[in-house]
Structure formats: C-alpha cells, structure tokens
Give the backbone structure.
Amino acid sequence: MKAVGFDYERPTALDHALELLARDDVSARAVAGAQSLGPMLNLRLAQPDLLVDITHIAELRQIRREDGTLRIGACVTHARLEDGDYDDATRGVLPAVAAGIAYRAVRNRGTIGGSVAHADPAADWIATLTALGADVVVAGPAGRRAVPVSDFVLGVFETDLQPGEIIAEFRVPALSERARWGYYKVCRKAGEFSHATGAVLVDPARGVSRAVIAAASGRPVVVDDPEVIHGNGCRPERIADLLAGTPIGGDAFEVNTHTVALKRAIAQVTA
Amino acid sequence: MTHSKTITLTVNGKAVTAAVEPRTHLADFLRERQLLTGTHLGCEHGVCGACTILIDGEPARSCITLAVACDGHAVTTVEGLDGDPVAADLREAFSTEHGLQCGFCTPGMLVSARDVVLRRPTADDNQIRVEMSGNLCRCTGYVGIVNAIRRVLDARKTAAE
Ligand SMILES: Cc1cc2nc3c(=O)[nH]c(=O)nc-3n(C[C@H](O)[C@H](O)[C@H](O)COP(=O)(O)OP(=O)(O)OC[C@H]3O[C@@H](n4cnc5c(N)ncnc54)[C@H](O)[C@@H]3O)c2cc1C
Ligand code: FES
Ligand code: FES
C-alpha cells in the first residue's frame, strides 16, 4: 500500500520545528529516520497531515561528553553510535548495542530519539537506556524537562511525550572503570526485533546494580533485587512475579524465555 | 489538499530537479519518475532489502525513505554502480558462485555486499551472514551469495599483500 497524502517541512531550527508541531489546525508529527514511521505510513497505520523532518536541526545531531555525562542528540543515528566516533562514556556499551539493531541500511537512518519516541517494547535503546539509568530531555512550547527513561516509557508504543513536544537529547551517566555490562536478546534471525531482552549493569563504584527485563509487551521492568542479579534469584518463579500484571505474566513459555535472556545477560556480568 | 515540493538531488552523479508529492517514497520516485527500475520493491516496510540503495554513499532502504527527505543529497542506485570497481568484482563473483537465480534480490544484495566489502574487509563467513541478514533471497539459499562475497574479500586481501 502507499501512504496517504501529507505535507512536509524540514526546519533547521528547533524553535521552528516546535512551532510547526504546535499547529492545532492539522495533525502534525515529527519524523526522524522514518525507519518506523515509514512502514506505518506505507501501511496507513499513520495518516498525518504534516510531517516535520527534524533531522536537519544541527543541535539534535550532536554527541558531547560533559564531565560525567554523555549527551546524545535525538537525531544521532544507530550507525553513528555503532561506529563510535565520540568520547564513549559507556565504555563500549553503545557501539555494541547499536551494532545489533536491525541491519546497517536501517541503522544508517534510524535514530535513537525516534526509537524511544516510537516505544516499541522490543526496541534496543529502551532496554539499554533504562539499564544505563539515562534521562531523556524533552523540548516543548513550555521549555525543557528531563525525565528518567524508565519513567518516560509508559507502555506499548506509549510514552510521556505530550502534544507538541519532541525528544531533544539523552543524558547518559558515564560508567566507572570497573563497571560490568551484560546484554542478551532472544532472536530467531539476526537483526529482527527481540522476543525477550535482558540487560544488566553492575557498577560498584557508583553503587549501581540494575537489571532490566525488556521486550515484555509493556514498559521495561527494572529489577534491583541483588538476589536476582548476584544470587540465585533469576528463576522462572521470580521472573513470573516480576512480570505479573503484564500481558505475558501468566504465560509460562514467555516467562521462561525472559528468564533465559536475563540469565544470559547476568552471566556476562558475573563471568 | 497537500502540496508538492520541488527537490534537487543527485541521482547516479546527475543533478535532478523535480516536483514530488511528500508521500512519494524514494523507490517509487526512482522507478517511476527516473525510470531506474533496477531498484526493486518487495515488502515496502524495510524488511526484505530489495530496495536498498545508497544515500550519500551509505546503504538505505528506499521504500521507507521519503523522496523529499533526499533534497540536497546524493542517491546511487544499482545502475549507478556500473563503473564502480567493487560492484564490478561482485557482479562477476555473483555470476561465478551462482549468487542469484531469479535476480529479484540482486540489486539490493549488490549494494549491501559492496558495503560489507568496504566496511568489513576482514569479515569471516559468519560475519558476512550477519551483515547480509537484512537482504532476503527466496531462491539461492544464500550459500552462493556468501561465497561470492567471500571470493571478493579474499581477492582483495591477496591483491593488498
Ligand atoms: C526491518 C527493521 C528492523 C528493525 N529492527 C529493530 C531492532 O532489532 N531493534 C530496534 O531497537 N529497532 C529496530 N527497528 C526500528 C529502528 O530502530 C528505527 O530506527 C526506530 O524505531 C525509529 O527511529 P527513526 O529515527 O527511524 O524514527 P521515525 O520512524 O522517524 O519516527 C518514529 C516515531 O517517533 C517519532 N519521533 C521521531 N523522532 C522523534 C523525536 N526526536 N521526538 C519526538 N518524536 C519523535 C515519530 O513521530 C514517530 O512517531 C527496525 C526497523 C526496521 C525497518
Ligand atoms: S522493499 Fe524496501 S525493504 Fe523490502
Ligand atoms: S535470486 Fe531470486 S530472490 Fe534472490
């Protein structure tokens, strides 16, 4: 199928983009890499009146390290994060995760901001940024606000983004020298969306010990129980408890798959 | 009523100015307006890789890239790789190794394979498979495709020694 007709603007200033997105006479929508919105347009799941292309706004494409924080603009592509041409405060986490997203042709255009805004529960950046304890900075008519990614994602394709707002950047805290990272996706084919994702960050110097169960048909589940991460607690009964209330909480096969994903991520940290 | 946009871009090295409807994706623009039918459309949602082309030298899906978004950029299709030395080696290797049967996937395969050869010169067979996993082929079973890329990588390694 082909997309419905819509208008298109490509502002080069953030304020101009926000003005266009604030229009209430049309349904306006931001577009970045179009790697999720493109399929939705072609399938007519999305039928906007106006698309505002935000990829030519220079400040959204920057990556900067500021002391203990890596600031990543919303329109930085997966491929750039994979190639690592920046001062990587995550000690290799971002390039490794980026390399496992879809295929290079998709990574060349798809962006970290688009991925989080789209909020597919299986998206790699949602699991990763939650585990890293990153904040998302949202820009809107009323200015900017910062929200932990773990609070920003509310559910399946659902975020805290308000009408007229866009994601401007992410702030990722630097990992200390002895930090350990584990990440495991259950996929049947390289590059496909994950069926179950486990992510673990253990950074004793900063007092961080955090696991994330993602791709679980809802918002990511954050686990800080040391028994699960360092003890013997990563078992189906415990994971079923943690997934209780999600659509897959009562599904033994799904619970097992998530247990395996998290166990394998934990094994990378404790190995 | 939506408004068409006038865009100026480079297609296979040639400057092109055209009025396009914003909803037109790059593959339809290339096939129907530029008559460059080497770019194939399979799924139109980014999964199969048949429509893979280069934008500013980097592989991209033309089915989920809007033509208007390419204003000011350079697009290269399989037709534009006629004189490209890596693509020439790959075409020969695909033929020798039976890397195609019906040929529907081949334009996208060549664009992605060229990227693998240039970006992953030391790739082993498994890495070739992972890097090429975004291009589906319904005919060959992939063995011939992997062998073709292997052949070009090996030849370039030997030539460099
Ligand atoms: C074949 C295929 C396989 C894929 N596999 C994976 C995978 O394994 N893992 C994975 O994580 N992803 C995968 N993806 C998705 C990919 O990562 C996309 O790049 C990403 O989901 C969307 O980013 P984008 O820049 O293309 O956003 P777009 O498609 O342009 O936009 C997506 C949504 O976000 C909104 N939006 C975009 N940018 C902003 C912003 N800055 N502020 C507010 N709203 C914004 C848009 O309005 C739209 O609603 C896959 C995609 C394809 C086509
Ligand atoms: S037609 Fe573009 S990826 Fe299938
Ligand atoms: S040769 Fe027929 S699809 Fe690949």
Q: What stands out?
A: The domain at 83-160 of chain B is CATH 1.10.150.120 (DNA polymerase; domain 1). The first helix of chain B runs from residue 26 to 33. The two ends of chain B are 61 Å apart (CA to CA). The interface with chain A takes residues 1-3, 5, 21-23, 25, 28, 44-46, 49, 52, 55, 58-61, 63-66, 68-69, 71, 112, 115, 119, 129-131, 133-135 of chain B (CB under 8 Å).
